[in-house]
């Protein structure tokens, strides 16, 4: 018998009264592991009302006390790190190493949330005019919400609600309906950390529940990570309801390989960044751009990629796990077929992959294409699977032009021994996150996650200082006091508390 996933409303875990349920499955077996409710409108309303009520007191809590909740929380997350990783593996199919990385990157953001006071400081100028001072205050907005994807069920929720709540807001989280169990455990630990009743709510469901959040007048901000069409919908719908929105969308991340690069480093990093986590991450390298004679390494790349075998979460020899669903697998297999039909050379074909003992899993083996052009669907579309396509160019300038012509701008890397080439690349490339001899340049949380162009809709990015600004508003105060009003004389009494 599968478990029913609870709601978390007003500080309590409770069962939804909905008659509409979604089956949650283990991607390695496609067997059900839980049933998830599509939250009723009245339950959604109750969650938002609870968050609004909690905000009225939480915003007055000293910033140092809010930070201490986050300090407690990060300690609990560390103590339960392996347990969280196992829950995460069961619902995503991620191998243990990937699952632990997912949890740890979330913990790093919580640690940054514990440093919230330094990011809540305003500015002051004394004597902007005669006897007049002006200063700014950073204040929370109110009820915020987050809509998170399946591929990082620990990290991405932890990008959102700890910083928002540490800044003095309250938060409604709607995790992906495919991976709800990790979020429930995150909420349990958050409650144990001393978070007051109502500052975090968790609701479940699909588009109907998302639309409810987007339209509700008490929701002030919307944070989203997911596919391009949905990100566009979230952004346009949310902003049309006068909400502040950050919507992180798709990607087509390129790694440029210069002929002077360290070959072994290139091959190791290119393989790991393309098939790791089954390619289901928005910062995966899905295009290798070989400059000049570097194209001679494609044969060696094929050899190294062929060593990467998928498997179950607890298989110590597995390089990555299954795709999230049968639908996702079908989509990837269709794109592989289209690549072959459109004339790309399939150097390594993982479309017939099988894993012993798991005949019903959503397996796709490592797949490598060469001879790819920019008109092919395997180049134009985000595959979101363990598929790497190779393009050959003659010069660094051609590589830069190629990447800048792509509609996405999430992340990119260059591998080279030339400082001049690296500087030219990082200066001219129109992509938000750039790695130099680093395959996946995801910044640590004291910086912000800064995708550009078609990979992001909004103005302020996730975590770091930009996230604090996203979840807060600035109030500017101009004050004047008159010397004549200073109390004087023997009858002046000073009252000390």
UniProtKB/TrEMBL annotation:
It is an enzyme of class 1 (oxidoreductase). GO terms for biological process: L-valine catabolic process; thymine catabolic process. Gene3D superfamilies: Aldehyde Dehydrogenase, Chain A, domain 1 (3.40.605.10), Aldehyde Dehydrogenase, Chain A, domain 2 (3.40.309.10). Residues 15-477 form the Aldehyde dehydrogenase domain. GO terms for molecular function: methylmalonate-semialdehyde dehydrogenase (acylating, NAD) activity. It comes from the Bacteria. Its EC number is 1.2.1.27. Pfam families: Aldedh (PF00171). The keyword Oxidoreductase applies. Keywords: NAD, Oxidoreductase. The keyword Electron transport does not apply. Belongs to the aldehyde dehydrogenase family. This is methylmalonate-semialdehyde dehydrogenase (CoA acylating). It comes from Vibrio nereis. The lineage of its organism: Bacteria, Pseudomonadati, Pseudomonadota, Gammaproteobacteria, Vibrionales.
